[in-house]
Amino acid sequence: MKSRPEPANFITLLIFAILGLCFCIVAIWTAWDKHQIITTWPRANAQVVQSRVNLYKPTVYQAEIQVRYQVQGKTYTPILKSEDTSSLYGLMQALVERYPVDSTQTLPYSPSAPDQPVLDAGYHLRFFFWPLLLAVIGLILSLIALALWIWPYLPQKPRKKGPDRIGKYLPVWVGGIFAGIGLLLLTLVGVWALNQAQARQWPELKAEIVGSQILTYSQRSSTRYFAPALDLSYTVAGKTYLRPVCPESGLSEAEAKDRLATAYGLKQLLSLRVNPKSPYEIELYPAPFTLGWILGGIGTTFLLLGSVIGLAFRKGI
Q1: Contact at 8 Å (CB) between 49 and 80?
Q2: What is the pTM of this model?
Q3: Which helix (H) or strand (E) holds 213?
Q4: Residue 199 near residue 288 (C-beta atoms within 8 A)
């Protein structure tokens, strides 16, 4: 039994402990800040002027709520954007539906900046998501540091002399990992193909382009890309829906402007398929199966390779 951790293990322990402490401190600070917003900030009765889901990136959505209220005789009409974004349109639509147009909402605002109210403030997971996430990360890192600290003091079983078992089983483990990755990719492709097949059974209708703009965004780099962002209006069961879509992405600014001028003019009609059970879920163009074939091929290759490696080396164990 060791009396103290080795220097390398001690340094690793110290790094995890410091990181865990930093994450926990930031989590507590942000949680306290949000608690102060809820309990101490003044509140204003704001009328919702506009409430909609907008595009943050071609396939990422964000809720935008415009409100009107008065503080000390001065009128403010800020556009509030949700802190979180999502590739699932329904999540942002659910937030928007909590702020219907012409409704009155009580919103806290900064005492030093009355034009900066806070959306969706309260003791719930959405508002405290980031403090909770930071706290969980800090707790995990702290538990790892604790495990590294107590591990040397635990009684260790004497190792039996013999062949290297890790080296003996390593090829089988590698084969299993390859096969698992292949199965995961094939499962994802299967689910995606099933969803696409179901979408092709949705009823088709015409949607009118009632608004358009050029969306500017970046993808994991400083390179700027452009895309035509459209507002589509369509009717399902007598109710009109407004839905932002981005039919193309990754274009240059000139290409995006050309597409808006030629293919996506105002009042133009586009064909789309709509999920009758959830009218906000649409399929503008049937997605090509090219990506599915590529992922399916990669998954099949990994599965076959992993199976061959596992079976070949398992016989020698």
Answers
A1: no
A2: 0.71
A3: strand 204-218
A4: no
